[in-house]
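Batch job 17 of 40 flagged for manual review because the log was empty.
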Amino acid sequence: MKRLLLPILLFTATFVQAQQFGGNPPSVKWKQVNTPAARVIFSRGMDSVALRVAQTIAAMNPLIQPTIGFKQQQVSIVLQNQTTISNAYVGLAPFRSEFYLTAGQNSFEIGSLPWPEQLAIHEFRHVQQYNNFNVGLSRGLRILFGEGGQALGNTLSVPDWFFEGDAVYNETLVSRQGRGRLPYFFNSFRALWAAGKDYSWMKLRNGSYVDYTPNHYPLGYMMVAYGREKYGNAFWKGVTYDAAAFNTGFYPLQGAIKRHAGVGYKDFRSAAFDHFKEVFKADTKDPNAKYQHFIADEEYPAFVNDNTLIYLRSTYNDIPRFVIKSGKEEKTVAAQGVTTDNYFSYRDGKVVYASYRPDVRWGYRNYSELAVLDVNTGTERRITRKTKYFAPAFSADSKTIVAVQVASTGKSELHLLNTADGTLIKTLPNTAGLFYTYPKFYGDDKLVSAVRNFKGEMSLALIDISSGAAKYLLPFSFQPIAFPQVQGNKVYFTKTSGLNDKLFVLDIGSNQLNEVTTAEQNGAIGQYQPAIGNNKIAWTGFTASGYRLQQYNHADMKLSPVNSDQASALPDMNISALSNDSASNISASVTPAALPITNYSKQHRLFNFHSIFPSLDDPNYSLQLVGENVLNTLQSQLTFTYNRDEGYKEIGYEAAYGALFPYILAGADYTFDRRVFYKGNSVYFNETAIHGGLQVPLNLSVGKRLTSLSASSIFYYGRTTIQQAYRSLFADSYYTYISNTLSFRNQTQQARQHINPHFAQSISLNYKKSVSGRQGSRFLSTGTFYFPGLSANHSLVISGAYQYRPQNNGISFSNDFPFSHGYTAVSLNNMNKFAASYHFPIAYPDAGFGNLLYVMRLRGNLFYDQTHAAEDDFYADKSALNSNFRSAGAAIFFDTKWFNQAPISFGIRYSRLLDEDIFGGTGRNRIELVLPVAIF
């Protein structure tokens, strides 16, 4: 397929968001809270959460506007509470936001603030950004192309590191926590600096398949925070205005920084890094790691015995696997199933973890089910169904499991379950409204858990199993706590202290708190996920080559007493601007306000046309007016197309309604001024096409496989109307037919470096049959099967196809048969195909130029295609066609990033035709540009 311009590719790819089409069942009833800044849409029972979100935005909005701009367009925020995912987004095309309301367990990653409040603080900053980046050329693009035009302009002018860095700064400014105060947030860069890795700017921005590189969140925060500290709180307002308006040339943001800071872009970012390098200058250096690529993440160690550890190992060329290590020998136990959290617990030869499972039909509803793995046999079984359990842990005798249950309302509870079958033994009362993380058994009648209170402060709690009453072992503070482990009367855990996340041990009997240190840290940053053996201790620390295990004898540990009654404030990383702003810690003063709650109609702005997308696919040139409602239950587009070859024009409309169990699909097209040649003259006619039908999409993923099944049935009506001058020669005609499709896809998980999954299957069956008017039918089946190759990142792909349609079909169905590479594709009565291809990586350049193009990987593929085609009465003398169309060749593909943000893969393919191309073209050698293979 030919595409003309890279910007057009980006244009059509910029707006992909995380939403699920038709993701909620029709039984969900929606309500809303309306304020000038935000319309918060929520399901019944979520009133208090919605009010808190609206109140936080209302209090914060006027105080943080001066640093970004005062333009305000109301945004719709949909609260999704049926999912186990912890995430959120704000997007254009259409302009809306969604909050996924299940909070995560690891308080070091995001912080411990109440999750809806955290999302409101972070995501609403994105709303302000989009509102105020509608200027200059970006505004011109919006006028021409709608919200999608602004999205393109903003993507090309303001990098993603600013969007996220500015939002993280807002977290840190308006609360007493925020990721800008959490040492964990900086671990990635601290590890690179400690290892002496001085990656280029383009590598830091675009990533790597062989080396660990941080994402754009900490990078963005350091840039934004330094800019605010050095040049004042209004600095980025001016910079982003000039950038989004394209006032400063080809590199908009770079030129804007030069204009407002008076220094070049390179010098600015070097100064920003130097500021934070100075903050973390005391980190232990590890010069031996300078030339070391990413090795593996080794997480959540547990002692089988003092000489043997079990942990989860994840590499770039393999999916996460449980590994047992004894001495220097490692043995793989089993692959981990699909999960949103790598945490697991081990006891007596068993592993338990929370396994992710989507709902069969509704994309916004998914589950976290407990899976128990037998380490000795490698067999795994799910012991709960359609539950939302997190951070499970065994009792001392491994017969009982404690897990955190997070209800759709956000309420957190501790459940005790039977290990054998997952039946619920007891639900502990939670009268204090705590949010539990990483509970552990303490004896037979108590539990220890890191807890968050309603303010987001954390403590360590001793919980009575019979009553649910909690005794707090530490004072509440905004210092995150996680990963408690119990040994006798002692609890080991990780807690933020100053610039580091340190390991502590608390003697519950004496209430003595000690910091745990060793003489040697091996250059690792932080002490996470401790494991306690009889004579040894282990934890994982972050390094430039991944999370790596650290293991020591108890005798090597040093215990330093700490006053457990003192809780110091989190560090500001020498960013004094955080306290010199009227918005500082404004979230602490948000008070409940009486805001009206009303019903939200599912038909509100149902069509919601928001963007015009151009499509240049020669010979067809089209404009698409695209619409999508806020609840994402109706997607539609109105299209005008001009065909350069025939000169015809076409107007079409397509719609899909996904709020019911089957999707409802419908569309209509009217084509005028089509022409054919008849006896040397052009004959013009018009065509009308209408279709409607149903589709049932099913997500059957479970355990270690991702599986989907989709069935659809669509009825088509078509009519040809001869234009007036030719009606005496030809009669009008019509036809109706039905198209039935069944698609099945199944695959294993895929590691970062895998070109294809090691095992996967994709099968599609389609049967089209006329109902009235012209006669015709067609059956088409395709299948693709993926297998591992000779090396971890190699892939063997076997595919096949079969098509049959009767002779003299009255309906000209579109040609969807995957013909052999290099040949001119045709649709004949009887065709079958076999193909084999072998994919392999060639190199990982990690190189680019001009902040325009960055090449992450070169990969190749060798292929052989064989199509056999037959058709009776094919030639003028009524003889049949019975031919092979074989080709072999190779391709090279480039996996790239453009403008330091947009991933695009393209390739060049050489095909050697082993048979004659009787339908077009000359010669046996064909070279094609394959563009694009993947965008975003």
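Reviewer: the log was empty due to a logging misconfiguration, but the result itself is present. Confidence is low (pLDDT under 50) at residues 1-17. Unflagging and moving on to job 18.
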